[in-house]
Amino acid sequence: MIDREKFKENFVYLDKEVVIEIIDIFLDEYKERLTNLQMNISAMDWAGLKFNAHSLKGVIANFMDPQTIELSRMLDERAKLQEDNGLQELFSELKTATDSLVTELNDLKKEFI
Prior knowledge:
Elements: H1 4-10, H2 16-43, H3 46-61, H4 66-81, H5 87-112
Helix pairs in contact: 2-3, 2-5, 3-4, 4-5
């Protein structure tokens, strides 16, 4: 769940249009990012998984959603350690959390329009 107070603090100096654009970029890219993560997991591509999980973590951090940040951090760490135990389950949790984040961002975006 987005910490709305921290979210607003993070974007306080940006115009509403810029905040909407940042949200829209994420909304346009997140499905491809998740697809890439799933492909990395299926192929046990540790370098790709590390890169994509770390990248997703950085993007999600902008939105102040602690659960999704933590899940992406854990996926990043597992890739770094090349630890496949529970990897698919962790990805499933991340996907569910990201889907919830997307719903929240779509709602939050309405406040900026």
